[in-house]
Amino acid sequence: MAVVAEVGRRDPNAGLHEVGQLGQPSRYGADETLPAPAWTRRAAEAEHDFAEVLTSQLPAVWSALDNGEIDRPKVRAFTDHLAGLPAEEIERICRALLPQAGGLTSGQLRARLARMVIDPDPDRARARDQYEKPSPTDPSSAT
Description:
The protein has helices spanning 2-8, 29-33, 41-57, 59-66, 72-82, 87-101, 106-118, 122-128. By secondary structure, the chain is mainly alpha-helical.
C-alpha cells in the first residue's frame, strides 16, 4: 500500500537522475500502478485512492494492517467510514476500535464505526442523509 501511494506522489517532471516527490498525489498517479497487476484504469484509481487515504490519513490503521493485526476488509471499513474526517476524530475512533478490530467481523466493525462517526455529531449525520424518503401514504410519491 505504501508503495502504491508513494508512486502516485512521484513528480513526473523530475530530472532523469532524480526522484521528485509531490505534496499530494499527481492527477495521473494511478496510471503508474496500472500495468503491474493488470488492473483496469478504474481499479488502479480505486486502489491508489485507497492506499493514499490509508497511508496519509489513517497511519494507525496502516500500521495494524502492516503488522498483520487486521485484514484488508477491516481496513476498507476504516477507510470507508473515516476518510476525510478531522484528524482528532480519526485518532479518537482508532484508539477505541483498533485494539478490538481483529476480533470483530467486518460487519461488526462497520456497525461500530458508523455509530462512532454519527454519535459525536448528530447534525452531520442528518446532513449526510439530506433527502427525505417519501412516505408510503404520500400521494405525491406515487408513480
